[in-house]
Specification:
Elements: H1 2-26, E1 35-38, E2 41-44, H2 45-66, H3 76-96
Antiparallel strand pairs: 1-2
Helix pairs in contact: 2-3
Keywords: Cell membrane, Lipoprotein, Membrane, Palmitate, Signal, Transmembrane, Transmembrane helix
Pfam families: Ytca (PF17090)
Subcellular location: Membrane
């Protein structure tokens, strides 16, 4: 009985794996590289967005320290990491439309 259940589970996993492979093969590739032209060469847009996200997070942290909000944040690392991610995605969407 145990062997039949294990064999069924193995067949199910193989089918799921095959379905995932077929879905990955069916999805179209990106039509353009994630880069923007700067000074005659291509530069990855996500790196620019990350830089903007880090700079804006530093600016927001300075504001939090001045207004004493930084003292009441429970998990600072997680909050600032999430803020950096949010600012990066926001700048990517606003400036590059991606």
């Amino acid at each position: 009985m145990l062997r039949a259940g294990a064999a069924r589970k193995e067949r199910l996993l193989k089918r799921i794996f095959l379905a995932i492979l077929l879905l990955m093969a069916a999805t179209p590739a990106l039509s353009a590289a994630p880069a923007v032209g700067m000074f005659g060469s291509f530069f990855p847009y996500w790196l620019i967005s990350l830089f903007i996200g880090v700079v804006t997070t530093i600016f927001i942290r300075v504001i939090f320290v001045v207004t004493k909000l930084d003292d009441i944040i429970p998990w600072r690392v997680l909050v600032y990491l999430s803020l950096t991610l949010a600012m990066t995605l926001l700048s990517s969407h606003l400036f590059f439309g991606r």
